[in-house]
Every structure is written in structure tokens, then in C-alpha cells.
Amino acid sequence: MKNKRQDTMDRFEQTANLTSDILDSDYPKELAHYPIMHQQPIHWGEMDAFNHLNNVVYYRYAESARIGYLQALGMFDGSMVTVLAQSSCQYLRPVTYPDTLLLGVRCQRLGTTSIVMEYSYYSTAQKAIVATAEAVIVRLESNGKDKLPWTEAERERLFALEEKVGHIPKT
After folding, report:
1. Which of 54, 86, 106, 119 is most exposed, with the fewest beta carbons within 10 Å of its own?
2. pTM to 2 decimals?
3. For residue 158, what pLDDT is reported?
4. pLDDT at residue 26 above 70?
5. What is d(CA 169, CA 115) in angstroms, rounded to the nearest whole number?
6. Separation between Cα atoms, residue 6 and residue 78, nearest integer Å
């Protein structure tokens, strides 16, 4: 029997895909330089009083996409401690039910102990980018207090993943 953690991991594996594995003629060109694609159906209960996707939900979607990105790098196995240091979202167009968003996620900049993640939210109903977002993640020692640098092997995996779609993060 699967434990709760394994069920969660399986769910993320079903929604996050390597962009290079799914590129075809129907793939939105706006997301071509994002190595990870997270597919997110909009749920009726996520609408607000104005009948569009509640602003808080975009942050949850970014979290799911970020986890998919880290999983693709083999960095989300429970041993890594990270903290969200900053996040922002720019809402470009309202999103309503029913719709499915494709979230492109990539590394904008890789620091010594941090990573700046960049997100684009593509509406399959509107055929357009409806939001963009950014998050700064800091890696910590297992004590949760001291910063921990990315290893050379982790950096190499990240740059190799990004290179598959022709993107080169800043350092």
C-alpha cells in the first residue's frame, strides 16, 4: 500500500512533463523555452466572487510546477530543504472555469544557494499567456537555518535540463 507521500509524488509525476518530451505542432510557441510544463485544470471551487480564478490559486499552481521542476532534476526526494524567500505574480488576463492552464517553469537565475524560478501561465481556452510569476527559493542545511550551496552535479543537471529547450539561466 502506498503512503501519503508516495501518492503525492505520483500525482505530481502525472502533471509535470519535460517540455522536450511533448513538443509538437499543438504546443504553444510561447512556452517553447520552458523545460518543464505543468498541466493544471481549473476547478470550479477556485473561482472568486467575480467568477474568475482567485489570485491566491496562482501561487499554489506555481508551487506544484516548482515541485515538478525539482523532481525532474532529482532534487525533490525529501532530503532537500528549501524555503520560499520571495514570490510575485502579474495577472495579465482573467481566467474562468472551465479551462486548463499550462505552466511553463524554468530557472531564471541560479545563485550559490538560491534559484530564481520563472513561470508563464498559458490558458488553453484563450490561447494566450494569462499570467507570469517569479519566485526566489533558498536552499538550506537540514537544520533549516544555514544556507547550503548547490553542488556542482546539481548545477550541471539544471543547466543540461534548461539547455534542452535553448534556455541559459543567469548565474
Report:
1. 86
2. 0.86
3. 97
4. no
5. 10
6. 11
Predicted local distance difference test score (pLDDT) of residue 4: 43
Question: Closest by alpha carbon to 73, among 161, 147, 170?
Answer: 161
Give the burial class of 111: count Cβ atoms within 10 A of its Cβ; 0-12 exposed, 13-18 middle, 19 or more buried.
middle
Cα distance between residue 83 and residue 141, in whole Å: 11
Cα–Cα distance measured from residue 161 to residue 36, given in angstroms and rounded to the nearest whole number: 9
pLDDT at 75: 86
CA gap 88, 20 in Å, rounded: 27
Pairing of strands 81-91, 36-41: unpaired
Burial group, residue 155, by CB count within 10 angstroms (0-12, 13-18, 19+)? middle
Rounded distance between C-alpha atoms, residue 61 and residue 70, angstroms: 14
Distances 33 to 102, 110, 168 between C-alpha atoms, Å: 13, 17, 10
**Which residues are bridge partners to 40 per DSSP?**
101
CA distance linking residue 170 with residue 150, whole number of Å: 15
Mind listing the pLDDT tens digit for each residue in 64-88?
999 999 999 988 777 788 999 999 9
